[in-house]
Structures are given as structure tokens and as C-alpha cells.
Write a structure and sequence with these properties.
The complex is a heterodimer of chains A (394) and B (483).
Chain A: H1 13-18, H2 32-35, H3 42-54, H4 61-68, H5 75-79, H6 86-99, H7 105-117, H8 130-134, E1 150-153, H9 156-160, H10 165-177, E2 182-184, H11 194-199, H12 205-218, E3 223-226, H13 229-243, E4 249-252, H14 253-262, E5 274-278, H15 292-300, E6 304-307, H16 325-328, H17 330-346, E7 351-354, H18 357-369, E8 375-378, H19 379-387
Parallel strand pairs in A: 1-2, 1-3, 3-4, 5-6, 5-7, 7-8
Chain B: E1 4-9, H1 13-23, E2 28-29, H2 32-37, E3 51-53, H3 58-71, E4 75-78, E5 95-98, E6 105-109, E7 114-118, H4 123-131, E8 135-136, H5 149-155, H6 162-165, E9 172-178, E10 184-188, H7 200-204, E11 213-220, E12 222-223, E13 227-235, H8 238-250, E14 257-261, H9 263-273, E15 282-290, H10 292-307, E16 313-317, H11 320-331, H12 333-338, E17 343-346, E18 349-350, H13 356-364, H14 366-369, E19 376-378, E20 380-382, E21 387-388, E22 391-394, H15 399-417, H16 438-442, H17 445-456, E23 477-482
Parallel strand pairs in B: 1-23, 3-5, 4-5
Antiparallel strand pairs in B: 2-3, 6-7, 7-11, 8-12, 9-10, 9-11, 13-15, 13-16, 14-15, 14-20, 17-22, 18-21, 19-22, 20-21
Helix pairs in contact in B: 1-3, 8-10, 8-13, 9-11
The chains are: A alpha/beta (394), B alpha+beta (483).
Chain lengths: 394, 483
């Protein structure tokens, strides 16, 4: 498989040498900013990789933890003057740990769940559409696994975690509002495989990618829309390397909505009188270069004053949950989300918005941990509420 | 060769236990994986410490030094680890003191025009806080996102704005320093002027961790200029560019920065950030700051002077966005060069302004003198104050290239910089990289530097083996590690 070439640690020997050790990647690394240990920084990880490749450093649990204590947010790769492919190198090391059967247990569990039931929670496949009843949308969702112009690829955590279904509901309402011909894959949707890519567990990614692409193509859709940045990145940038070109376009929901806004199809009815700060999800922003659509949508909502984090767009700091951190090192993920809340207060935001269910869930956990009353919302929920098609306490 | 003997104590498990009692178990590591990560900085060298310790208070630093002094254990302080001269590498092992946990901004006092910070505060974080109040700490190293204030004090760092604002030494009013004995002293005064003692502050600033551990710093701060204007010129010859820069200075103009990139670097930098349509040549950027009327008038004068040297291209702007883009072009010099080869070594030297044309010309020719070696070089820097950063790119895994690089260094410092009356470092420090050249520049004065080092640190436990403090050269010293 061509994909595997990206996951060979030996292919990163030049990157390990090119690292200038200038430290530009260190200071704002969301993991290093908590521990301050050099080995928990991108520069440190590249030195460990160099040690493994050239200095006889053997794979062990310390190196494994250092490679998995990373959100794979891509800040280091963006910031690197020498163009070192940092996060790709870490994923290659993660893959090597998988080959040695030394992956962290949470990553093994995610893989097992995914293979057994097609989702990361090991829920029965029928559970993938239960959110429809929970959100009282049985009459609104016309098509499940039926031919349509658009497939809404929900992803696992949006509809199966139990706390992010409102994003799916808002997305469904928006697709209906726009009068689009759309369908869910329903029970035929499998996890996109992102946890496997992130943990370097590649044995099953080909089968998963083929399954999902075939399921979509079978319905004749020309567009796949998703509200999950992880699914978006995997479908758009990983799948083509596995299955080759396919005949549908991949959009994040904010891109589809931006087009509707430009075409004057969004007629806002309700005001949201609030100062909103937008958090860039790493897999949507820095890794896929989608920065403007969510901002454009938010600032067009009547009453909203959009503000920015001090570090935003390409410099945005991860919420802490990326790269499997929510599963492998949940306390670090939580602490980083607490930092995001603090930074939201520093810019006097009343609502902390994102365009990712995982960011939302992690930041909600942080708010709960700190009894912080800041409102946390997905862009889809804000837009749908302002259009008057979605009930929310935002 | 006369060989001296120096005895050092071993970092035993008992010492590690003592260190854990001082700073807490979570702030001490002797795991190999951690040691490797602290074994390099932005230089070519690698030396492993025996243990890493992360103090959070001055008192902890004092206790660590007392323990180290009693047991003759080497201690090497480290800030952001972004240094290009190997100054923070533990040449003979021992304790590596990671100062980044001392990262509190203690006060920002606009009324008194000063700020007090712990040594581990990151430069950019401090300026971000200051700028919200309309002030800043002007020296601006390119490593601002990585370097600590303690590191800047120890290397007397500066940067692009050095031409107008000077270097770190011009802003340090007061220091808290832990001596090798563990004694805590305070130097200078938390006032804008004081001559009440021997100037120990200036002695410590730039001492590269050889005299004491800087734990707190009081810095003078300045208001940020309200308006900027920027001019860019591209010259066919480096000689014309250097002449234009010198004439701007002769005219009594003090810009915020006069920056340059040689032809090769300019081409790569433009490609790197996507500037198209400009002619090839040597790039110069002149930035002027102040009140609007002054900036406009001064920039017009700059233009008039620089046009006389017949640039291939010239433009000026007062728009913030475009100014940022032009400055970004200059800042992309290092990243552009770094992508050429697996290893990039950023050098640092300074020359009298009158010698810049000759120096820049000769530096450009270094790769030709290393012909066939595979080593290449680009040049850029703060030409307004004579500070150049010739940057070597090569593959350090190929012995031939590595040897050619070392020859290139000798050519740069021994054949070009020193004969032209320059200095071997303007802002990066001596560390390990420039140690072979310090005596060539300072002659017998080095003996007095070493005498001062011995006065502060009679057991040579603090950052040993570096050019400024010594003991040096290590080939003349037999190190014995004893239980």
C-alpha cells in the first residue's frame, strides 16, 4: 500500500537532521506548555527519533509515551523554519510501536472497537441512527442510505458519544433548510478510520476506506458533507492515497454553508447578542486550511461580535483532544482545554465557538471541571439557531 | 602542551536524591530519553548531561548550587535552548539546570518604565504583554518565540532593531544572581540611572552562564513607535548596497532597522514566501518608526540617499500589512536556506561599517574557496549595525562536508572578520563555537576574563569548558570524575 511509505520511520532521517533545534516549535506546543519537559516538545521528539535512527535508542515505553503525548495539531510543522515533517514522523514512530505490539492500551481498544463494530465506541451498528429519535427528527430526515445528491457523513463521536448529537441535528436542519437532496449512510457508515491513522495502526485502514467510498458511490452522491474535521481530513486527504480518485467532492459543513451565505440563501431571523471567539479545530484549520468559512458564518449572524484568540488560524492552539490525546492522556487534554477557556475569558468572549464535536466536548468537560459558565457551541448550532430552525440554550 | 588537572564529582544516586528533595521528584530526571533531548541546542554539538533539574525558585537554585559546589559537580544553565554557539551544552556532563519553570512576569510598571521578570520568561510572551500597554522591550532576537529573558541576558542578545535600540545590556537595570557558592546577590538598581557600585550588572550580562545563575531581571521598557514606514531596495552589487546603508547612517538617520540578504538568499526567500516579479539581486530593507511626520520625512530622505547608489528596484510603503510582508521576506532568510541541505549553521559576526562592502564580498566567495566540498553559504543580517549572519548549509553526515565547513569557519573568522577589525560574535555569544577564536580577538585580555571567572567560580563548576569563562581549551585539561 502506497500509504505505508509515509509511515516508515527510516524515511524521516533527513528530517531529524534538518531540525535546526531553534525551538520555534517548542513554546506554543500545547503539550510542552503543560509539562515543560524537553522530551515532551516537538524538538525533543525529533531528537528522540534521531536517537532511534542513529544513536541506538531502543523503542520503549518512555519513547512511546512521548510520541503519543502529542495532539498531532501540526503547529510544530507549520512553525518549523526548516520544513521538518514533524507530525508525519511521530505517526511513523507510532506505527513502529504498533508493529512491535507496544501501542498504548487506549489505542488498542479503539482499534478493536472499530474493527468489531465499525465505530470507536463499540456500539451496535444500529446505534448510529439512534440520534434521530433522541433529537426528535424522525419526520425531518427523509433518506437513510438512499440515493441522493449529498451524503452527510456524521462520524462516530458526533452521533454516538451521547453529548454532541445536537451538532448532527443542527446540520440535518441546515441541509433541510437549504432544500438539499441529502441522505445519511446510516448503519452502512463506518468510522472513517481516523483513530487508526493517528495511532499508526494501518492494518485495517484500506478495508475501511474502501467500504465507505463504495457505500457513498453506491448512492450516486456528488458531494459528501461532514461536520467532523477529523472525518473531513481523512476523507479528503487520506482516502485518495488508498483508493485513488473518487467521483465525489468532500466538504466540511462550514464550506457548504459559506456557499449558501454567498448565494444569499441564509435568511437570519434571530439575533445572537454575544461576543463570540472562534477556536480553529486543528484538522480543519491548520491541517486543511479552512479558516474563513466558519468565521464568515459567525460574523454574519445578526448581533454577533466576532473576536479572536491571541493565537489564531495557523498559530491556533489545539483544544488538547487531538491526536488521540482524549483517549490516551485525558488529563493533559482536559488541562489544555482549561487553558482555552482562560484564553476565551481573556478576550472577553461570552460564547466559545468551534466547528468540531471533539473540541466542543473537550471544552465542555473543561467548563464542567472549572464550573465555568461560558457557553460552548458549534458553528452549525449558532447558524441554525439564528435561522430559527434549531432550539438551543445558547 | 601543559596539561592541568581538574577534578569533578560524580552525579551519584545520592546527589540525585538530594536534588529531588530540593525541587521535587517531578522536576528531576536522569532518564536517557530526557538527557538526549537536552544534549543539543541550535549548534552542531552534542553533550549529554547526567541529570536535568528544573528549579522554580531562586532559593532552590541556591540550594542546588550549594550542593554542586560542595561536591564539585558541573552545572550548566539552559533557557530556551535556541542558542547557536553551544553555550548551554553540558560539556562535561553534570547537572543541567532548565530555567524555564521560573517563568513568572513579576511586574510591569509603566509609571516607572520597567518590568521585573523571572529568567525563564519567553521573550515573545513578555513583549506581547507589554505591547498591550503600548510598551516593549526592544532587543528582538529572531528566536523571540523560543528564547528566554535569562538566555538573552546571558548572551547579551539583540536583533534587527539593534541599530536603533542597542542590545539587552542597554535595558538591564538590576539582576538577581545565584553565585556558584549558592550565595544570592542583587546587582544594579531598580531605577533608570545608578552608578553606585562597580557595574556587576554589565559584567554578568553576556557572561554566558559562567559567573552566576541569573534568576530575576529588571528591564527598562520603552513606548512602541506610533507610526512606521518601510523602504525596500534591490541592488545588483553588494558593494552598492553596503555603501547605501553606510550613507544612510552618515546622514544621521537612525532607522528601526537596516536589514539585508545577499543575492542567493534573496532568491530563495522570495521563492519561499511567494514574492514574484522583483528583479534578482541583493535585498535591503530600511524601516523607520516614530510620529507620522518624522517617518514620512525621514523615509523620503532614505529614498533619496539610496537611489544615488542606483538600485535595480525600489519601493516604499506605509501600509502595515505590506510592511509585515516585506519584513517577513527578510525573516524568511534562515528558513529558506535551511531547506537546501540537512544541516544549517547560522554564524554571527560584526564589522566596522566602513568594512562591510569588503567583508560581504569576501564572505560571498567562501563557497568558491571550498570548491567541490558540497558546502554552500548564504549571507544576511543587520547591516545597519555591521552585524552579518553568514549561514553555512551542508550535510553533517558527510565527513568531507563537515571538514570543509570547519575550514569555512576559519576563513570567515581568521581571514575575513578579524583582519578587518571585526568581532567574532555580535549577539549569539562565544559558547563552544567561537571559543577557538576568542584569544585571536582579545589577546592577553582573555587572561583577565579567566581571572574574573576564577574569582566568581574557583572550582570551575559553572558552565565549564566554554570560551568566555573556561577552563579552556579542554585539550589542555585532564578531567577526572571522582566518587
Amino acid at each position: 500500500m502506497k500509504l505505508l511509505s509515509k509511515y516508515r520511520i527510516e524515511d524521516y532521517v533527513n528530517d531529524a537532521h534538518k531540525c535546526l533545534r531553534c525551538g520555534f516549535c517548542v513554546t506554543l506546543c500545547p503539550i510542552h506548555s503543560h509539562s515543560k519537559w524537553e522530551s515532551e516538545s516537538p524538538r525533543g521528539r525529533m531528537l528522540l527519533i534521531r536517537g532511534m535512527l542513529e544513536e541506538g535508542l531502543k523503542a520503549n515505553s518512555i519513547i512511546r509515551d512521548r510520541m503519543f503525548e502529542c495532539t498531532l495539531c501540526g503547529y510544530c510543522k507549520y512553525r518549523c523554519p526548516a520544513g521538518v515533517r514533524t507530525i508525519d514522523a511521530y505517526k511513523a514512530v507510532r506505527h513502529q510501536f504498533d508493529e512491535l505490539n507496544l501501542s498504548p492500551e487506549p489505542a488498542n481498544i479503539l482499534e478493536k472497537n472499530l474493527i468489531e463494530s465499525g465505530n470507536i465506541f463499540n456500539h451496535p451498528k444500529e446505534a448510529r441512527i439512534e440520534w434521530i429519535d433522541y433529537m426528535d427528527l424522525a419526520n425531518s430526515i427523509k433518506k437513510i442510505n438512499k440515493p441522493a445528491e449529498i451524503v452527510y457523513f456524521t462520524g462516530c463521536s458526533t452521533v454516538l458519544s451521547g453529548r454532541a448529537m445536537s451538532i448532527a441535528a443542527a446540520t440535518a436542519s441546515l441541509l433541510n433548510y437549504l432544500g438539499l437532496d441529502w441522505t445519511l449512510l446510516g448503519e452502512n457508515e463506518k468510522c472513517c478510520g481516523n483513530p487508526l491513522f493517528l495511532s499508526g495502526k494501518l492494518k485495517h485502514v484500506e478495508a475501511i476506506a474502501k467500504h465507505n467510498v463504495e457505500a457513498i458511490e453506491k448512492l450516486g452522491a456528488s458531494i459528501v458533507v461532514t461536520s467532523c474535521p477529523g472525518c473531513y481530513r481523512v476523507l479528503k486527504s487520506e482516502y485518495p492515497e488508498i483508493v485513488g480518485k473518487f467521483n465525489f467532492e468532500i466538504l466540511h459543513i462550514t464550506q457548504l454553508l459559506e456557499k449558501a451565505l454567498d448565494d444569499e440563501k441564509l435568511k437570519f431571523k434571530n439575533k445572537i447578542e454575544a461576543k463570540i471567539v472562534y477556536h480553529d479545530p486543528c484538522e480543519l484549520g491548520r491541517l486543511m486550511n479552512v479558516f474563513d468559512p466558519p468565521r464568515k458564518l459567525i460574523e454574519n449572524i445578526p448581533g454577533v461580535k466576532l473576536t479572536e484568540f491571541i493565537y489564531n488560524r495557523n498559530l491556533a492552539q489545539c483544544c488538547g483532544a487531538g491526536g488521540l490525546m482524549k483517549a490516551t492522556f485525558p488529563s493533559i487534554a482536559l488541562n489544555q482545554a482549561i487553558v482555552k477557556l482562560t484564553e476565551a475569558h481573556e478576550v472577553e468572549a461570552e460564547i466559545l465557538a468551534s466547528a468540531c464535536q471533539t473540541c466542543k466536548l473537550n471544552m465542555m468537560d473543561a467548563a464542567s471541571e472549572k464550573n465555568d459558565e461560558i457557553k460552548i457551541a458549534d458553528v452549525t448550532e449558532l447558524v441554525a439557531k439564528a435561522l430559527g430552525i434549531f432550539e438551543s440554550n445558547i | 602542551m601543559k596539561v592541568k588537572k581538574l577534578k569533578y564529582g560524580k552525579v551519584s544516586s545520592k546527589i540525585i536524591d538530594e536534588l529531588k528533595k530540593i525541587v521535587g521528584e517531578e522536576n528531576v530526571s536522569s532518564e536517557k530519553e530526557d538527557l538526549i533531548c537536552y544534549s543539543r541546542d541550535a549548534s552542531l554539538y552534542q553533550y549529554l548531561p547526567d541529570v536535568i533539574v528544573r528549579p522554580k525558585t531562586t532559593e532552590q537554585v541556591s540550594l542546588i548550587m550549594k550542593l554542586a559546589n560542595k561536591n564539585r559537580i558541573p552545572v550548566t544553565p539552559r533557557g530556551g535552548g535556541s542558542g547557536a554557539a553551544g553555550g548551554c551544552l553540558p560539556l562535561i556532563g553534570g547537572i543541567l539546570l532548565d530555567m524555564r519553570a521560573m517563568n513568572q512576569i513579576i511586574s510591569i510598571n509603566i509609571e516607572d518604565q520597567m518590568t521585573i521578570v523571572e529568567a525563564g520568561v519567553i521573550y515573545d510572551f513578555l513583549n506581547e504583554k507589554l505591547m498591550r500597554k503600548g510598551f516593549f522591550f526592544p532587543p528582538d532576537p529572531s528566536s523571540g518565540i523560543a528564547c528566554t529573558i535569562g538566555g538573552m541576558v546571558n548572551t547579551n542578545a539583540s536583533g534587527e532593531r539593534g541599530i536603533k535600540y542597542g542590545s539587552t545590556k542597554d535595558y538591564v537595570l538590576w539582576l538577581e544572581v545565584v553565585l556558584p557558592s549558592g550565595e544570592i546577590i542583587h546587582t544594579g538598581s531598580k531605577t533608570l540611572k545608578s552608578v553606585s557600585g562597580l557595574d556587576l550588572t554589565r559584567l554578568i550580562v553576556g557572561s554566558e552562564g559562567s559567573l552566576g545563575i541569573v534568576t530575576k531581571v529588571c528591564l527598562k521598557i520603552l513606548p512602541v513607535p506610533e507610526y512606521y514606514g518601510t523602504a525596500v531596495f534591490i541592488y545588483d552589487s553588494i558593494n552598492s548596497l553596503a555603501k547605501a546603508a553606510a550613507k544612510v547612517r552618515e546622514a544621521g538617520i537612525i532607522p528601526e532597522m537596516i536589514e539585508f540578504m545577499d543575492r542567493k538568499t534573496t532568491k530563495l526567500a522570495f521563492e519561499y514566501i511567494g514574492i514574484k516579479g522583483l528583479p534578482e539581486g541583493n535585498f535591503m530593507l530600511i524601516d523607520v518608526g516614530g510620529i507620522e511626520e518624522y517617518v514620512t520625512k525621514t523615509l523620503n530622505k532614505v529614498f533619496e540617499i539610496c537611489l544615488k547608489e542606483k538600485p535595480e528596484y525600489s519601493e516604499k510603503t506605509f501600509e502595515k500589512e505590506y510592511r509585515d510582508k516585506l519584513i517577513a521576506a527578510r525573516k524568511s532568510a534562515l528558513p529558506s536556506l535551511a531547506r537546501l541541505k540537512p544541516c544549517t549553521v547560522l554564524e554571527d559576526c560584526t564589522l566596522p561599517l566602513s568594512k562591510l562592502p569588503e567583508a560581504a564580498y569576501k564572505i560571498e566567495k567562501i563557497p568558491e574557496m571550498l570548491e567541490g566540498s558540497g558546502v554552500d553559504l548564504g549571507d544576511f543580517g543587520h547591516i545597519g549595525d555591521g552585524n552579518l549572519h553568514p549561514t553555512f548549509v551542508f550535510d553533517d553526515r558527510i565527513e568531507k562536508e563537515k571538514l570543509a565547513f570547519l575550514k569555512g569557519l576559519d576563513i570567515l573568522y581568521k581571514d575575513i572578520v578579524l583582519p578587518l577589525g571585526g568581532s567574532i560574535t555580535a549577539e549569539h555569544g562565544v559558547g563552544l563555537a567561537k571559543a577557538p577564536y576568542i584569544s585571536l580577538e582579545h589577546g592577553p585580555a582573555v587572561k583577565w576574563m579567566r581571572a574574573i571567572k576564577k574569582l566568581f567560580d574557583p572550582k570551575f563548576i559553572l558552565n565549564p569548558g566554554k570560551g568566555k569563562g573556561g577552563p579552556y581549551p579542554m585539550e589542555e585539561i585532564k578531567i577526572e570524575i571522582v566518587e
